[in-house]
Amino acid sequence: MSRLRTFLAAAASAVLVAGCTADGGGGDASDGEPPGASGSPGTTAAEGAGTEQAEATPPPAPKAKACYRYAFRELGRTSNDAEPVPCTGRHDAQTVHVGRLDLVVDGHRLAVDAERVRAQMARTCPRRMAAYVGGTPEHRSLSRFAVVWFAPTPEQAEQGADWFRCDLVAIAARDTLHPLPPRPRVAGVLDRAAGPATYGLCGTAEPGTRGFERVICDRRHSWRAIATIPLAGGKRYPGTARVRDAGDESCRDRAAGAADDPLSFEYGWEWPTREQWDQGQRYGFCWAPD
């Protein structure tokens, strides 16, 4: 007989975000520094290149296709002035998009940290990440890939900076990033069989038990998230009992199909918490020994 194991695991990493379909505004920023403004009337060329001119020139946009090394705590920042590192060396972040923010609405300039401006990045960056790593929506939900975005500081925005940057990272374990290989090996990685096997969501023990920790599947593990089970419902959380029961049978069927012996297998159904539901997660994870 199959062994049924249900549980309520801890919330997933806070930096994971869901994909969207609409672009957040503006085209790509160029790789180089934006051209400076011309000198004011009545000044010489030398004067035009002086202090006043330098102050009027917006700070340069980040380089496209750059790579970075981050500390995990940096992922929660709204801006980041880290210097790029060679993509052929050790790094744990890759820029997947540099775009322009629409900071003017109805003739008024918005603050760079305004909710409407942040929403532009939240719409665009997950879509850019999806196009970069490939795979299906389920592949991406089952992966440890995440996307973070950075905007100019308020001071840079006052000088005319209007760019934003979307960076791909992979979460290795709690508070730890996973090193990324050179860019060509990451592009479309979830379209290849080795991608989910390396960057998938795994656990160090049976989910919901002592010793369980979410890790990237490239690390030592004993359980794997094998499927996401979508759940029906609106904005209001259906309640623990309902979401617990809603996906259990589907998870059991998925685990049975993946097991060597469909009459004797283990599985775990992890339903979303109220907090996760409020953040837009309308699915749970189905786990099986690996």
Automatic annotation (TrEMBL):
Keywords: Signal. Residues 113-284 form the Septum formation-related domain. The keyword Signal applies. It holds the Pfam family Septum_form. Residues 32-56 have a biased composition (Low complexity). It comes from the Bacteria. Residues 23-62 are annotated as: Disordered. This is Septum formation-related domain-containing protein.
